[in-house]
Amino acid sequence: MIREIKNNKLYFDGCDTTALAEKYGTPLYVYSENDIIGRFEELRRDFIEKYPNTRVAYAAKAFFPLAMAKLVDQCGMCVDVVSGGELYTAIKAGFPAEKIEFNGNNKSRKELEMAIEYGIGRIIVDSLQELSIIEEICREKNKKARILFRVTPGVKSSSHDYIVTGKKDSKFGIPLDDEIVLPQVKAAIDSPYIDFYGIHFHVGSQLFDNGSHLQATDIILKLAGKIKENFGYDLKEINVGGGFGVTYVDEERKSYSYFLDPIMEKIDAYYAQLGVQRPNVVIEPGRSIAAEAGITLYTVGSIKEIPGIRTYMSVDGGMTDNIRPALYQAVYTGVLANKAEEEKTEVLTVCGKCCESGDILIHDLKVAKPEAGDIFAVFSTGAYGYTMASNYNKNPIPGVVFVKDGADRLVVKPQTYDDIMKNEIL
Ligand code: LLP
Known about the structure:
Strand content: 25-35%
Bound molecules: ligand LLP
Number of helices: 12
């Protein structure tokens, strides 16, 4: 068990969280290495080893300090980056360039130059405009870029509106109208600077139903048929994105097999009937790797009871280290880590310290009776927490500690006030 309660205290991957709070200060992001490794092992067993010619490209946007880049590489996975910054992090961590793929709807020329110079494995191209920039760069540098086109399959998926991406009205990807997508594919196939490799889609995030992935797979196979018919070209790779849902409170997390087996069945059947070798299949999980591996520790400060209304329990972080409740009305749960076995007699609202009424981390949570100085742990904060952190109100971004089998190591130092001001000029 990654999360345990011993002697009234919350333990995480064998470490006493109250001792971590004491040692490193709060707020603090804590990640279980065993949890991350375990997710990749599940993917290795149920996807990579079960189906030949498949790859996992971890979506760096979920959580990607240098130590995570190294761990992803050690676990034998590829990585999907979406900015020059993420790309630079991967390279700095020693990630093999050919195992990096680059997504994004508006990559700058400079970012594309970086990617081509490093010789990364794949660029997932979002438009014809991007394709021509890549061609120009490759012409100048006498290189060839391997690309996939990201398309918008035009499917609906049920998740928060801000994190669904597969519908046609989206800033991501190329619409699937024949007259739009086919000329782009032709331009890529014909270009001496481009190694056109396949098609990519991503339908949305935090999904518990495989319906939208399956619908999108059907649509992409239809496109594959048209590409073959028009240009005699067989796709070499299909990338079905990420989006696999996780448990924040009590949502029932589905296995990777639940999503991937029927996708693979569809793709295998399609190519078996054509008598053509199936293209590689790639997935890009982010949240499902990092979310449950992370918790955030806070120290409780002011406790304010408004009789007949509610009690606010303030912690020493908030929307600056976890914007998700304010941005997506995301729901979390947590526990007083130093009173983990005590009866939960109180119902209160956990709020942050930012000058913003919306800075509420958890509404109406049952907890043991809190006091200033208690340590409060929020669960499943590992994805899109640290990566979306900000310096609002000039709050420093917390540090990150990796824990494994009872040992802890700091992998990101907490910011200091001087760090925040480093680039300011007086
Ligand atoms: N691939 C592509 C092209 C993506 O756009 C995304 C997520 C992923 C993979 C990874 O999806 P995941 O497995 O993590 O669901 N900040 C939001 C989530 C934004 C997701 C954006 N794209 C949140 O905190 O919920």
